């Protein structure tokens, strides 16, 4: 019975195979290296596969010694019982990880959109105000000058010239409109997008936490409840910072709108220009309070290290990967006062979220991503410990120089014949067939090649050089389909192709009769051309690959650049072919 689960295997040049469930969730990293690997030797995982019943993981490893310029090829096999027994749980965990990962990517994209929507329009005004502040007397400030203007309605000549020549009514109006548009867009992303994705993340992380507490089903996977609790608290801190950003935007919009409207009317009056009718009324008490608050708080000198001279811009600092430069003091909330009175630490209570006053929104997102990655990475070590390695099988011996090992570029496959599990690995001209033994029987390997094909009239008669194996596919549990390339007896410069069936049983008999325990000296290459059946000659087809379907009894051979495809019935006694050409 085959298990339906998607598994992606990725090997690297360090001898590691990454096992990814669903192609997204990296369940574990398996260290697959050649035996007796010394320091400095390289282990390249050339190809790897997982059996369809999820019992065995097979990998072909190229061991290379750069000092002695020697290389050897090994087959590494490991038993993966946990994947077979808990594949449903792993698939469910992979599905949740894909949800969480996609939501984190969505959050990152939302923050990027917020950064693009935010415009640093106040930087120009900050530069002009800083330049004007240098002309003031010692002890005077821009905020004091504007407060006098607000209270008395009079301005010194220097302030008058600054407002009319530097800021100008047109410039103030443009800054006010741009600022309102920018802040409104940022607030929309924060309120509609971030708030929704935070709720979705909390739901999925809570579901994973529930799985981690179900020890009977998910305990073997190594999911840590502590690391997931850290993720949830980190998400709560991120949610609090998002609410803080929304309150900062709301407060900034109100105070800046009142300030820019007031300063715009003042500049018009100083320039003796007509004031719009909707702005002629005086500021009410609330608007006056907002303007005074803006002058005292936003026109105060910035702290050292800030890129601004004044505290005009508060929103942009939440969207960069730096600590907040301007942190306003706030009164403790009801819950904070309650914790202080009860002398409780919010960090010790898992369902209470602690604010982070000096961290930006982007910093907290990066911290959340790291915590989530660490939480799901706890499965790697636990699952890796359940993998049981089997004895290594040397396929090609250690050689020097430009050996045939470096020319191998093929695939690995697995089949079951007469109750025996086999792994086949075709190279350029050789076919390695490895038979797994039980606990009392050694693993055996047969190295086969095709030096001659009976029944091919156009084949060269020398029979000394093995034919090229272009492709080897599993036709059924007892037969392999092979795509051959050989030199024609009529034309030496043209290569012909043929498709044939290779029964596995006689090849297994060769392995059982010829080999005892495996050794590093390599294997004699056995000619299995006499076992080939149902041979179909394709002529000079320039074939490169093949695909077969045992239940449909069909084979498809593809030419170079897939310009030609030839289909035929493999079991037919007479060759019935259908050729399709494109381009």
UniProtKB/TrEMBL annotation:
The keyword Cell cycle applies. Residues 75-272 form the Anaphase-promoting complex subunit 4 long domain. The keyword Mitochondrion does not apply. Transmembrane segments: none annotated. One of its GO terms (biological process) is protein K11-linked ubiquitination. Keywords: Cell cycle, Cell division, Mitosis, Ubl conjugation pathway. GO terms for cellular component: anaphase-promoting complex; nuclear periphery. PANTHER family: ANAPHASE PROMOTING COMPLEX SUBUNIT 4 APC4, ANAPHASE-PROMOTING COMPLEX SUBUNIT 4. This is Anaphase-promoting complex subunit 4. The lineage of its organism: Eukaryota, Metazoa, Porifera, Demospongiae, Heteroscleromorpha.
